[in-house]
Design brief:
The complex is a heterodimer of chains A (337) and B (327). With 337 residues, chain A is of the alpha/beta class. Chain A has 2 domains: 220 residues, Rossmann fold; 90 residues, no CATH class. The C terminus of chain A is likely disordered. Chain A has 11 helices and 12 strands. Chain B has 327 residues and is an alpha/beta fold. Helix content of chain B is 32%, strand content 22%. In chain B, strands 6-7-8-3-9-10-12-11 form an 8-stranded mixed β-sheet, sandwiched between helices. A 4-stranded antiparallel β-sheet of chain B has the order 2-1-4-5. The longest helix of chain B has 18 residues. The model of chain B has no long low-confidence stretch (mean pLDDT 91). The chains are: A alpha/beta (337), B alpha/beta (327). At the A-B interface, helix 7, helix 8, helix 9 and helix 10 of A face helix 6, helix 7, helix 9 and helix 10 of B.
């Protein structure tokens, strides 16, 4: 598989009046052709900033300080704004979290769908309109000809997210970045949208970078997972690696703190104590130290690099060093039905 | 009599309609039927979970029980007393016994008040304590929810989401209530913090003998914390049962679809599972479908569902459901 997107040593900071908040602190992520990669982590871990960095849409006072983002071999960070505009929505499309606010309320759905088609595909009005109807049909919106003339407020949340997906697909992008695409939706609607995304991915063979905090959604949609914490990658691997053979204590904590639907008794949850660190002054060592029950002296002093567990399963933890005591992950609290 | 089966809260055919504004002047005023005939009991010391999608009326049920909304019709009985028609002053003694924890820990704390004053507001209103006693109570409450005593003098913006939710819990506990409505208390929190708050709620329940109505849309968390769970759809309860029973043997097609839609953090289980994907969206509660309200999205609906509303029937052991097609 070819690398479609290659993020190399990306650093993105926000220069606020109280100081520099280091939101992303040197991450490397590859997305291959046709692959769905999930980026998981809690709020403030840098997952959304990573996706905005790829789109070159980091809002002020944020800035990409260092690194390269190769898309099909070309560094996006070297592109001019004009060149980026040709890529956004065309080669790389984004689905945002909140379908309620990411559509313009004063334009019809049709206007908003037709705009990228005219701009990127140079279609005339009629052809673009035909194409837009086709797209709405593709995302299962009933009565698309009529719907095209309606405004966003006439659509429900799930329908708006479908429109967002239709817009993202309109130019057959090679990469779709979906930032919490179903967080604002109800469970049954979420299931519809996930099913739709799976189908469309197979049909168009697009790559997906899915940003979420919900491990269930990743298990459903993605083949590879990147776990982020406090601006760095703490573990990455295949879905099976992360769920059945996790190596980082933070991943253990995440898996243990969620209840399982098929859990039989009323077992006690095992939370991760404490809170994530303040990225205004990120710690010198591993950022997870204050919440880690296996922390050693070296963890305080030095941030571990990524240790290779197997082919493409890596974790940043000193426990994986040959000199460290061996700690095994017990499956207590994680159901394996 | 078995004390564990004493009823603390009973709701009988509760309805809450909201008038809808707008439209043409001459148009007849429409009603949004947020809760449309809901009955259930909550036993002393138990947690009743209430789940459903947005707009199903679960929050309205919680708020109407607390009389934050006046019920349109139906009865709310608290510890044997009918409180449905009491006015604000008559409600006062009951307010001490029933409290609420809100969903949004950012919007539900007054940014201009110190944490101590927020927690003690109900102590002041009910004139429970003053001076040193008041301070001692604040400290005691902060200890209980796992915050430090120094936190009393600080303001809400200095705290994280999880800590704020702890402040909200301390405020609810201040008057030593019997019953707490937890309205999506963990939805706004991160995964690793959710478990902290849920464990705290469970500990406090044992320690103080609390009864909870736990409202949420996260079904796995509701199953974890609840003894019994009620499932709501468009202003009605469609199924109610003990939580393990509901999750292992869901009877109503809506419950089945809802359960099958939860993404499970387990790739193998995900692959094996048959998903029921519902068609379409939830209809508007202003003009709900005739008969069974779920019929427009139901995979097994037939003619009778449009004509006749199914009754709640007991299928053994308190497992109730409302559907024409349960054997």
């Amino acid at each position: 598989m070819d690398k479609l997107l290659e993020i190399k040593d990306l650093h993105t900071s926000f220069f606020t009046h109280v100081g520099e908040v280091k939101a992303v602190r040197g991450i490397n992520i590859d997305v291959h052709q046709g692959e769905a990669v999930g980026i998981v982590g809690e709020s403030g871990c840098g997952k959304s900033v990573t996706s905005l960095s790829v789109m070159r849409l980091v809002p002020s006072p944020g800035k990409i300080i260092k690194g390269q983002i190769y898309f099909k071999g070309e560094d996006l960070l070297q592109k001019s704004e004009k060149e980026m505009q040709k890529i956004r929505g065309n080669k790389i499309a984004m689905i945002f979290q909140d379908p309620m606010t990411s559509l313009n309320p004063v334009y019809t759905i049709g206007d908003q769908l037709i705009e990228p088609l005219r701009l990127h595909k140079n279609l005339d009005k009629k052809a673009a309109r035909r194409e837009a109807v086709e797209l709405l049909r593709e995302v299962r919106i009933p009565d698309p000809e009529k719907r095209l003339n309606q405004y966003p407020h006439e659509f429900s949340g799930g329908m708006r997210q479908r429109v967002m997906i239709a817009m993202a697909l309109s130019c057959q992008p090679e990469l779709i970045i979906a930032d919490e695409p179903t967080t604002a939706l109800d469970v049954t609607i979420q299931a519809q949208i996930l099913e739709l995304m799976k189908e469309l991915r197979e049909k168009f063979n697009s790559s997906i970078m899915l940003i979420t905090h919900d491990l269930g959604i990743v298990a459903d949609l993605c083949s590879r997972i990147v776990v982020m914490y406090a601006g760095i990658i703490v573990e990455e691997g295949s879905v099976r690696d992360i769920f059945y053979n996790p190596k980082h204590p933070y991943t253990w904590g995440l898996l243990k703190s969620i209840p399982k639907v098929n859990m039989t008794s009323r077992q006690r949850l095992i939370p991760i104590d404490g809170q994530p660190p303040d990225l205004l002054k990120p710690p010198a060592g591993c950022p997870f130290v204050p919440r880690c029950r296996y922390a050693m002296r070296i963890c305080q002093e030095q941030c571990p690099g990524l240790y290779s567990v197997s082919d493409d399963h890596n974790a940043a933890c000193w426990l994986l060093d040959s000199r460290a005591p061996s700690v095994t992950w017990d499956r207590e609290g994680v159901s394996l039905k | 009599m078995n004390s564990s089966k004493d009823i603390l809260v009973e709701v009988k055919d509760l309805k809450k309609y909201f008038p809808v504004r707008g439209g043409m002047v001459a148009e007849k005023r429409q009603m949004l039927k947020a809760v449309d005939g809901v009955s259930f009991q909550i036993y002393k010391g138990e947690t009743l979970g209430l789940v459903g999608e947005s707009g199903c009326g679960k929050t309205t049920v919680g708020r109407t029980i607390l009389k934050l909304y006046a019920p349109t019709s139906g009865r709310v009985i608290f510890d044997g007393d009918d409180i449905s028609d009491l006015n604000d002053r008559q409600m006062r003694p009951y307010r001490k016994r029933m409290q609420i924890i809100f969903q949004d820990p950012y919007a539900s704390l007054n940014p201009r008040m110190t944490v101590g004053d927020i927690i003690a507001e109900s102590i002041d209103i009910h004139r429970i304590a003053a001076g040193e006693d008041r301070e001692a109570m604040i400290f005691d409450l902060l200890d209980k929810v796992g915050l430090n005593r120094e936190h009393a003098g600080r303001y809400p913006h200095e705290f994280s989401g999880g800590q704020r939710q702890r402040i909200g819990i301390a405020r609810a506990l201040a008057v030593n209530p019997d019953f707490i409505v937890c309205d999506e208390p963990i939805s706004a929190l991160d995964v690793s913090i959710q478990a902290q708050v849920v464990n705290l709620l469970e500990d406090l329940q044992v320690e103080m003998g609390l009864t909870y109505l736990f409202i949420a849309h996260d079904l796995s968390m509701v199953k974890h914390i609840s003894d019994r769970v009620g499932v709501m759809y468009l202003g009605k309860i469609v199924e109610i049962a003990e939580s393990s029973e509901l999750y292992s043997k869901p009877l109503h097609p809506y419950t089945q679809a809802l359960l099958s839609a939860i993404p499970v953090p387990d790739p193998d289980a995900m692959e094996k599972r048959d998903r029921i994907i519902l068609k379409g969206d939830v209809p508007t509660p202003i003009n709900p479908p005739s008969g069974c309200r779920f019929r427009t999205r139901c995979p097994i609906a037939s003619d009778i569902c449009a004509e006749q509303e199914p009754d709640m029937k007991d299928y053994g052991g308190g497992h109730m459901a409302a559907c024409h097609f349960i054997e």
